[in-house]
């Protein structure tokens, strides 16, 4: 129960609007001055540097440690996200024109980690979540969305197959068992039986 609450808190890192609207990549021609009209832009009150939030939330504030070019976060640095003045998440990696760009690691509020390439603020390519219980989830992202098959490693178990669909679970590389991986963005996956009941380890 506690882990479920902590995982839910990680969702707040980019704002509660995540569950209501898809992430929006930073437009190629977006400028710092656009933050006045565009709620995707969040300005660090100390550095006066703007960061692009792909899922805007008026309760989210940022602190940027790194270069600032034309009023926007640029190059390698760290963004700390807060929501209602409480730590929500941290990003350590590349930025371009105010948006996450290049290799970087996202640290959720419960200290789960997400390592992936970023493009215009969205996850792009092969990425991996690492969770507090040492389980790992790898999948390919396209424009911020997980696509195709995923792999979920939990101790001696490995799941290979569809997200929210049927796949196979292997115990120490042995014979496969039918299984299902329940997946939602920014939440730790859950291994289930094909009918959705808890998986019997």
Describe this structure in words.
The chain is built from one helix and 17 strands. The model is unreliable at 1-20 (pLDDT under 50). Strands 3, 6, 7, 8, 9, 10, 11, 12, 13, 14, 15, 16 and 17 form a 13-stranded antiparallel β-sheet that branches. Strands 1-2 form a two-stranded antiparallel sheet. A two-stranded antiparallel ribbon has the order 4-5. The chain has two domains: 1-123, no CATH class; 127-201, no CATH class. It is mainly β and 201 residues long. Strand 8 (99-108) and strand 9 form a beta hairpin. The chain starts with a helix and ends in a 9-residue tail after the last strand. It is elongated and about 55 Å long.
Summarize the model shown.
The protein is mainly β and 201 residues long.
Extended strand count: 17
Radius of gyration: 18 Å
Count of DSSP helices? 1
The level of helicity is under 10%
Largest sheet: 13 strands, antiparallel
Query: Hey, roughly how much beta strand do the residues contain?
Result: over 45%
Shape annotation: elongated
Low-confidence stretches: 1-20
H/E series: HEEEEEEEEEEEEEEEEE
- How many structural domains does the protein architecture include? 2
- Termini separation (Å)? 19 Å
Mean pLDDT: 86
Task: Determine the structural class based on helices, strands and strand pairing.
Answer: mainly beta
């Amino acid at each position: 129960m506690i882990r479920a609450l902590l995982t839910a808190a990680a969702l707040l890192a980019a704002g509660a609007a995540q569950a209501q609207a898809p992430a929006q990549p930073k437009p190629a021609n977006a400028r710092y001055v656009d933050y006045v009209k565009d709620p995707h832009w969040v300005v660090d009150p100390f550095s006066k540097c703007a960061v692009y939030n792909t899922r805007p939330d008026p309760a989210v504030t940022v602190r940027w440690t790194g270069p600032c070019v034309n009023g926007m976060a640029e190059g390698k640095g760290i963004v700390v996200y807060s929501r209602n003045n409480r730590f929500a998440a941290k990003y350590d990696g590349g930025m371009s024109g105010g948006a996450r760009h290049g290799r970087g690691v996202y640290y959720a509020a419960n200290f789960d980690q997400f390592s992936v390439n970023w493009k215009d603020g969205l996850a792009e390519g092969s990425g991996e979540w690492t969770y507090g219980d040492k389980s790992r989830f790898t999948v390919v992202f396209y424009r911020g969305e997980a696509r195709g098959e995923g792999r979920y490693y939990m101790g001696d178990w490995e799941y290979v197959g569809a997200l929210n669909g049927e796949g196979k679970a292997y115990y120490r590389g042995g014979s496969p068992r039918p299984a299902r991986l329940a997946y939602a963005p920014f939440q730790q996956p859950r291994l289930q039986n094909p009918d959705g009941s808890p998986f019997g380890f």
